[in-house]
Amino acid sequence: MNIQHILSEKIKQAMIAAGAEQNVEALVRQSGKPQFGDYQANGIMGAAKKLGCNPREFAQKVLDNLNLEGIVEKLEIAGPGFINIFLSGEWLANNAEQALNSEKLGIQLSQTQTVVVDYSSPNVAKEMHVGHLRSTIIGDGVVRALEFLGNNVIRANHVGDWGTQFGMLIAYLEKMENEHASEMELSDLEAFYRAAKEHYDSDAEFAEKARNYVVKLQSGDEYCHTMWQKLVKITMVQNQHNYQRLNVTLTENDVMGESLYNPMLPAIVADLQAQGLAVEDEGALVVYLDEFKNKDGDPMGVIVQKKDGGFLYTTTDIAAAKYRYETLKADRALVFSDTRQSQHMQQAWLITRKAGYVPDSFSLEHHNFGMMLGKDGKPFKTRTGGTVKLADLLDEAVERAEKLIAEKNPNLTACEKQAVVEAVAIGAVKYSDLSKNRTTDYVFDWDNMLSFEGNTAPYMQYAYTRIRSIFSKAGINPTQLSGNILLNEEKERTLALKLLQFEESVTTVAKEGTPHVLCQYLYELAGIFSSFYEACPILNAEESIKQSRLKLASLTADTLKQGLDLLGIKTVEKM
């Protein structure tokens, strides 16, 4: 249930009835302070100003036209024209009951857009490293939220599978296969790439063959295309292993590499030129954008085709946006890549719109993110200054989690320990990132991320298992509880209200691409449950109250589990 949306719509209708414009916005937010109610409508003053009337008088007119019967306990005008909203305890209890008995915790599947989400984007013949982590897990968290709300989501793994380097890679793959007399397995992609580059730089004959293979590949030569496909497949098999370890939902079927758009590029450039958008400049084709200025204050030029005939990333991204609208029939297109690509994406999409390839109604969204830093405040590297391979990072997480869990609970069976270690290790790496606002840089710190205190995955996972242990220790089946939810104590009411705000946080993640909002919600929920548990005895309470509190506990566990699952983080029943 999205309480905020319900209240906003009701108040918007009342504001219009009170004389506001049809397109007025009702700004309803959680107040955060009990004395100001559960929510506060503070869009009243803006509407009153436009109408030229007293805000408190307008607020009273809004109340006179507002129908929140059965939903609110009390409404009051406060300050210069806010409306404080106190929700009905009975309404909260009834909706908490419905959420407990609902497969989706009371969430309405009201979103039906087709959304293409571009994330992860590793390169062929290179091993995934920590630089791919943020795009992969932030994008996947948003994908899960979008699907949970009922959207049709198309995952697009924009793999770097095209470019001049593939002539070199094909030539080296050919060399290795000939020397080994059988199809080789590229177990170390980084070593393969380095060796190919060394041969290209030192062997003139090899370099000439590599350049010829580039031309043949781009011309559709069957042999080169087959060798290229081998490289793509070998790379994606390794990447898929990383995705599975990370509990990320990408599959080989989601690959939409740069090569997909290559056939579209000549026609796009020709059309941009025909429209007068692209002009020749020193042999290259350039689009000059008045919206972007260079250091001299002149319109910035964006190259869409080099003088040697080659295309650029900008051209590919124009084609990708066009493809998402025309072929995939999407309503929204989201791209998750780092902040350094922000201007590039803005320029590519501005050209896309100027050319008329997508309408204004088509939403193009660059959800950028900051860098992963070490404790020294510099980009996260190995001790020797090299790039950290993603597989090595996950291996280290498992090693550290094994030590941690062995100390915390040595009584786990081997099977239980393996499940807990995997959940904690991968969960810690992911949650540490997802809990930070994606637009900022964040410091990678093993000690913090594996702590059982604070806003961490181990704390959240432990909070879940603690609630489940209430039922297991008492031998109670949470699906066989009876009676109604009763909210007689303030801590019970506070917990029920927080539980019913789950949809608000998920909706924000889907709308704004901000998984940290869901992390913060879950952390606050765990804290509110802890306060409830300390103040409100469960198993020793009178039977009707016991059943009610057990229901609140069960709904809390279900919400924590579902919330963590939307972040791609596993839970275990015992830690």
TrEMBL record:
InterPro entries: aa-tRNA-synth_I_CS (IPR001412), Arg-tRNA-ligase (IPR001278), Arg-tRNA-synth_N (IPR005148), Arg-tRNA-synth_N_sf (IPR036695), ArgRS_core (IPR035684), DALR_anticod-bd (IPR008909), Rossmann-like_a/b/a_fold (IPR014729), tRNAsynth_Ia_anticodon-bd (IPR009080)
Enzyme class: ligase
GO cellular component term, pick one: cytoplasm
UniProt GO molecular function: arginine-tRNA ligase activity; ATP binding
Localisation: Cytoplasm
GO biological process: arginyl-tRNA aminoacylation
NCBIfam families in UniProt: argS
Protein name (Swiss-Prot/TrEMBL): Arginine--tRNA ligase
